[in-house]
């Protein structure tokens, strides 16, 4: 605990707690910081932005309730674990809003550096295990990680639906970019992808999403643009 | 959606989303309110109280990392699901701080009424499933629910450790009541229970917990009371 910025360094555990458990509790104390990392998404239930810990909990509940829509068989417990750990690196790397192109440029480097700093606080076996879970989520090459990513893309769409567009109205957002996020839902679940498209289509009708379908770049469109059927 | 206080009633989903999925998404939108239910516990990472959604996420991470300490074999995925859903009824019933005796008097009635209102928003099969998960957690009679309760008791102790006692300093708290919560940790994990006792013992030495061991009622003790070895 040489780093004074670490939460566990503020008050070392009593000597009666052995080294392995102390390391695990230290990591869990440091993980408290995820509750302070704000996302771009507004809550549906209050007039403030969502934090990463709340978001991760919401995804876990979505996995439990929506697993029937996964396009491939998934291990629900493993998928829940993926979403619980998927944003931990943002404790040091910060959130990289999807419609903020600048923040996405060096996102991978920042998150790799954060993983190098964060996971080794754990005992070696669990450090490797959590790193592997994070890498699995990021790669999105297993049925579980595809579904985890699907709910990660869907959840902010659901919040946007109750916020007159929410992040769809951010300066960097456009219909093409919003549809690209919906494609990430479809990659794990065609049913949830179709539902997401239905929300977006209605959002376009209401003027909540800028740009016209098929355009290569965002156009600032006043009011609700007409949409091809 | 006859109740205008329901989040999903604010903006019904497009007709293209079928009835079952609409009910599930409506429940998930209403569940956003868990992010607004404040607990008594202070965060370790910021100067504010924790909310139920953050707390539930933290428990899920604790289950994933501390499952090796369960005194009986547990299904980790099932245990994570228990902690993800265990506080949902507080959306309507509110939090009942453990050291606030008045709020605990009618807690069970309030939470039963909340369950009757909340879970039927889901399709019948999932309404029954979530109710059963909540009842399982509350009863604490399975290995998974005993371990879920253990981390539910341990997590605020960990936050208190980084807040010079935190809720241990609440007016209604006393050493006997704090030790009773630690017994709930021990019931699921003797190792985590012993670690919790070590935190409390040190907290007593520092004057963070009122009352002397073995006393039947809380005594207001100034400074650090002496403790039997």
Describe this structure in words.
The structure is a homodimer of 229-residue chains. Chain A is mostly helical and 229 residues long. The first copy, chain A, has one domain (17-205): Orthogonal Bundle (Hypothetical protein af1432). The first copy, chain A, has helices at residues 19-30, 52-66, 76-85, 90-93, 101-105, 107-118, 124-139, 143-161, 175-186, 190-205, and strands at 38-42, 49-51. In chain A, strands 1-2 form a two-stranded antiparallel sheet. In chain A, β1 and β2 (49-51) form a beta hairpin. The longest helix of chain A is centred in the middle third of the chain and has 19 residues, at 143-161. Chain A is globular, with a radius of gyration of 19 Å. The N and C termini of chain A lie far apart (59 Å). The interface between A and B is large, with 59 and 59 residues.
Q: End-to-end distance of chain A, in Å?
A: 59 Å
Count of separate structural domains of chain A? 1
Averaged pLDDT of chain A: 91
CATH topology of chain A: Hypothetical protein af1432
Residues in β-strands, percent of chain A? under 5%
User: Per CATH, which architecture of chain A?
Assistant: Orthogonal Bundle
Which superfamily, in CATH terms, is the homologous superfamily of chain A? Hypothetical protein af1432
Major sheet size, sense and barrel closure of chain A: 2 strands, antiparallel
Order of helices and strands of chain A: HEEHHHHHHHHH
The helix/strand class of chain A is mainly alpha
Please work out how many helical segments of chain A DSSP would assign: 10
Q: Numbering strands along the chain, what is their spatial order in the largest sheet of chain A? A: 1-2
**Dominant shape of chain A:** globular
**Oligomer status:** homodimer
Most extensive contact = A-B, 59 and 59 residues
CATH C-level name of chain A: Mainly Alpha
Question: How many β-strand stretches of chain A?
Answer: 2
